[in-house]
């Protein structure tokens, strides 16, 4: 599924690139064609106009031959090196051939007739398999008498060759760009869908884990209900049913909290509260559990720490951190709760000397249903949602929750909430 999506994204990327490249290529080609054609036209026009002025000045076509030869040798006429000139009598016959070009196919009679009528004519012709651009100017004296014509021309093969070369370059560049855009598109598309793929995989894991978590208590309820049906005096079976029902209720409550956070609809009752006092209350509730587990529990709470927050939700986060510390610290270990103001934040940290978390597991501790020690967590009644919910609550408050840990040396969880006015 994701590979097909990757190829579709790449196809769109390549299509957009191709359309843009073709558009740019056409624009560049048309611009170059106009520039090259303009250069040819300007060279012909400059030479023919200069030759016309020479004829008008002398008033004699044949006597102007030497002057036009000198004119053609004048390098100051840009682009005129391969322009040829033929001087024509009023009847269209050749009066002089300053360029010494073969007159086969010249002069062009159609161009002469157009110049006779309109004064000048510029057209493209193919003479003996040579593509030429020819301009014919009618020459009149001051009285308006027709003295003859000057016909100048230039081969456009150089222009056509340059345009063909440009087409080859653009085409080659296009294929190269197409190949590079395909490779780049695959790379970019792969990176773009990576978060989607990761989200999909986690969603699939979430569904599988949720199904597993619900299957076990349901099986216990079903078995014990059947047992109870056979023996109404089975107090132990009823107790198991109640315990598993409570577990399922707690699990579903947690799932509802996560669902609300996914929809950005978590219900928070934001008021000004003392986070230090909330930490003291949570510490009093956990102290007896820590003592029963053979742990040394200590708290160092500085206050007051007034923050704008939901008191119950903050207490839930602190209790989740303390609960994890108790679960994953062996008898004889210690747990420390600290509350302080630091760099404009109210900070609550819970440290333990427990089993710690490996570097491979640490990035996933906030994933839903993820448990570092699955057997131990399930036995302790944990579904692996506590830290996920705690982070969602902190995100909803605009705070942060971080975990630092080292295997065998313990874990430190730190929650931060901004202090008002900081």
**Percentage of residues in DSSP E strands:** 15-25%
Strand order of the largest sheet: 2-1-5-4-3
Write down the secondary-structure element order: HHEEHEEEHHEHEEHEEHHEE
* Structural class determined from secondary elements: alpha+beta
Shape: rod-shaped
- CATH C-level category of the largest domain: Alpha Beta
Please give the domain count.
2
Tell me the CATH architecture of the largest domain: 2-Layer Sandwich
Briefly say what this structure is.
The chain is 55% helix and 20% strand. The chain is built from nine helices and twelve strands.
List the main descriptive attributes of the protein structure presented here:
alpha+beta, Heat Shock Protein 90, five-stranded antiparallel beta sheet, 12 strands
